[in-house]
Design goal:
Elements (H helix, E strand, L loop, with lengths): L1 H24 L5 E3 L14 E5 L11 E4 L8 E11 L2 E7 L5 E5 L3 E9 L2 H29 L13
Antiparallel strand pairs: 1-2, 2-7, 3-4, 3-7, 4-5, 5-6
């Protein structure tokens, strides 16, 4: 039973950590799991990256950013290799998987990568697959443990009449 309480506390700590990162980084999704090789980055599949809003930081060559890549089904991580001034404003030059330079409008940048935790993405995906059943079971066991332990009732629930 003690291990389950520790698991529940760990789950609550992770949720709090996730929310805190979101507030600090100014982004709704402060963490992202890398699913495959990312062009021009040192990120590997299974890495967990910590993101920050591009509005809170200056983007420079060498930074890894999460962009809306309209040619792929979802956002993509790319390394900035330079900038180019265009009629629409400043465009970021990134390398794609064919090592060719493509300008990306600044408005397409969703977030900047500020850190990475190797292999942690695999663990989070495994926990996500367990998902709701594990959380409900942990809460049920915690509640049963509390009901089995005798003790005085809280002061608000004691009838004095």
């Amino acid at each position: 039973m003690r291990h389950l309480r520790v698991l529940l506390l760990l789950l609550l700590a992770v949720v709090g950590f996730y929310g805190g990162l979101g507030m600090r980084g100014g982004t709704m999704q402060p963490l992202r799991i890398v699913h495959g090789p990312q062009a021009g980055t040192s990120l590997r599949a299974g890495d967990l990256v910590i993101l920050e809003s591009p509005k809170k930081t200056t983007l420079m060559p060498g930074d890894v950013v999460l962009i809306n890549d309209y040619a792929s089904p979802g956002p993509t991580l790319r390394r900035i290799v330079g900038t180019r001034t265009t009629a629409a404003g400043i465009g970021l030059l990134t390398r794609d998987h064919t090592s060719q330079l493509f300008p990306v409008p600044g408005s397409a940048v969703q977030a900047k990568v500020v850190g990475r935790i190797p292999i942690a993405g695999y663990v989070l995906e495994w926990l996500a697959r367990l998902g709701l059943p594990v959380s409900v079971a942990a809460l049920a066991i915690f509640a049963m443990n509390r009901m089995q332990r005798p003790g005085p009732l809280p002061r608000l629930l004691v009838y004095e009449g």
